[in-house]
Amino acid sequence: MTVGYRAEVIGSMLRPGYLKEARKAFEAGNITAAEFKRVEDRAVDQAIAVQEASGVDVVTDGEMRRTHFISPLSDVLEGVKVIPAFKRTWRRRESERDRGKQIEMQVQLAVVEKIGRKRSPAIEEFVYARARARKPLKITLPSPLMMALRYSPEYSKRAYPDPFELFRGAAELVRQDAAELARLGCQYIQIDAPELGMLCDPERRRTDFAERGMDPDRMATEGMEILDSVATVPGVTFGLHLCRGNNQGYYVGEGGYEAISKEAFKRARNYGIFLLEYDDWRSGGFAPLRDLPTDKFLVLGIISTKREALEQRDAVIKRIEEAAHYFPREQLALSTQCGFGTVWEGNPISEQTQEAKLTMVAELARQLWR
């Protein structure tokens, strides 16, 4: 059985203002690549320091060098081009009864040719952070199934008549990244798979998959087998993170894990750690945890990265105890529900709240398991 860390961080951290300004200046041609890299380095140093000071057990580089969590795939691939934009709806509401609000964001990238690797940014991320982290270091990579959101029936079909061939090609690229990271000493890789959380939402199953030529049931079966093929690199513990989208406080999916748990959980054979979003009603109840094989380690993402308010500690503890009715307590851990900055703009919370939430994760983990 895989044993993980009790106090986890998911991946991205809020980009500091000086990094955002430097990125704008670099993209405008006002500073050199060398100057921009020095600013990135400073931001990574700061992200690691914040995590280590909070007391969490494992750290990341904060994804400071990325514009988006999926950057190691979509931003550095040959064959991905700008197309006439279509829109995807993002939501924000506090409960099922709350009408909340929603926004439409443009999607302008799609696969139009056979994909190939230009470079691998995750290698730079690990090599730099390895020399600075005093705690165990985790690297995050995007799920190859995320290319479903870059698949256009109009623009991608000539290169990939079957989108699952695109997923297989992307899986090989992610597996190559993982193998190179292992060669450099990386022992823990997290694969981020929000598309699996989207499969829990009937509307998203229809609009983002079925209507775009991808059978949702096939995504949870054959797609999971493809996703599992990534996690075959010796010497590496692989974690699988599921959420429902995270973009400036908005999300795309709603619905409990029972929609995928019986198929997806059992097919993720090579993943020792599951990191599941469970911060609010959108994730449903804990009963689907019964479908998780008992040789896994489960990290409960109960602390929200979308809201400024700090959770009540007693309420978090109660949620963990509820989950323990369905999965062994000694194989549980605690984390934030997602990253704080899965896109470079970040979520609508302060850096002070970010630190306070990480500290809460660490303190509650020590209280509950040590």
Counting structural domains, the number is: 1
Largest sheet: 7 strands, parallel
Low-confidence regions: none
Radius of gyration: 19 Å
The CATH topology assignment is TIM Barrel
Structural class: alpha/beta
Overall mean pLDDT stands at: 89
How many strand units? 9
Using the coordinates above, name the CATH class.
Alpha Beta
Q: Sketch the topology as an H/E string, one letter per element.
A: EHHHEEHEHEHHHHEHEEHEH
**Strand portion, in percent?**
15-25%
What does this 3D model show about the protein?
This protein starts with 6 loop residues before the first strand and ends with a helix. The protein has helices spanning 17-27, 33-54, 71-74, 121-130, 163-183, 194-198, 202-209, 216-220, 222-230, 261-267, 313-323, 351-369; strands at 7-8, 77-92, 101-117, 139-142, 188-192, 237-242, 273-277, 297-303, 332-336. It is of the alpha/beta class and 370 residues long. It has one domain: Alpha-Beta Barrel (TIM Barrel), CATH 3.20.20.210. The protein has twelve helices and nine strands. The mean pLDDT is 89. The strands form two sheets. It has a seven-stranded parallel β-sheet with strand order 1-9-8-7-6-5-4.
